Structures are given as C-alpha cells and as structure tokens.
Amino acid sequence: MKKSRFTESQIVKILHEYESGKSTKDLCREYGIGTPTFYSWKRKYGGMDAQQLKELKALQEENRRLKHMYADLSLDHRILKDIIEKKL
Q: Dihedral angle at the C-alpha atoms of 8, 13, 19, 22, nearest 10 degrees?
C-alpha cells in the first residue's frame, strides 16, 4: 500500500479547516490532493480530534498484536496435535 504524504494529525488538521468553512476545492488545491482523497479522509477521520486519533492507533496496534499472538498459538496447537496423532 502506498504511504501517504500526510500524517493522520495533518489530515485531521485539514478536515478541521474544512469544518471551519474553507471550501473543498480550495483545500485540495492548497495541499495538492484530489477530491476523492479528501472525501475518503473525511469518511475515515471525520469528526476526530487528536485524542481520538491516538486511541484509534492504540486499538489498531493492540488488534495487530492480538492477531499475531493468536496465529502463534494456533500454529503451536496444530504442531502439538500432529505430534499426538503420529504417536497414536
């Protein structure tokens, strides 16, 4: 996936400018982004502030870590099950 030129905090700042009354066209021209990009950001980050963004990132990191733990445990379980089946 392509890395964005903008961090999440910069995206939230741009969206706050939009909410304060700046037009979409002006914001897109000023920051060099396309209108579809702006609206996808609005859908994803709309109404968030910096604290909520931090919480979202923390939850995503925790989710990634838990998925990794589950994959490791599942693999261990499968290996142990195969060993038991071979002994019988």
A: -120
Least Cα distance to 46 among 23, 7, 18 occurs for: 18
CA distances from 24 to 10, 14, 44, 47 (A): 16, 10, 16, 16
Tokens of 83: 């060993």
Compute the distance between CA of residue 39 and CA of residue 34 in angstroms, rounded to an integer.
Answer: 9
Q: What is the pLDDT of residue 4?
A: 76
Please, which contacts does 61-65 make with residues 24 or more away whose CB atoms are closer than 8 Å? none
> Over pLDDT 90: what percentage of the chain?
68
Are 74 and 36 spatial neighbours (Cβ–Cβ below 8 Å)? Answer: no
Distance, in Å, from the CA atom of 17 to the CA atom of 15, rounded to the nearest integer, reads 5
Residue 65 has pLDDT above 80, yes or no: yes
